Amino acid sequence: MLADKFEELVEEYTEGSVDVKVRCCGQLMGEDEAFKAMQLGTVDMFVITGNNISPHFPLMDAFVLPYIFQNK
Length: 72
Hints:
This protein is mostly helical. It has one domain. The longest helix has 12 residues.
């Protein structure tokens, strides 16, 4: 998983001075709560789907429109 690799690399490159804790599957909070927590600075990083970002950042709606792009 990408988050596990991120944890491994951060701890390797900082020689253990930064401790990354990975939590999976909404163990801490939902996406909407996480976005607000990131704005407040209580959460540093969270993986959020595009659909759940758009209420907070309307410009993201452009990327969740179906068939807007012909291919990847």
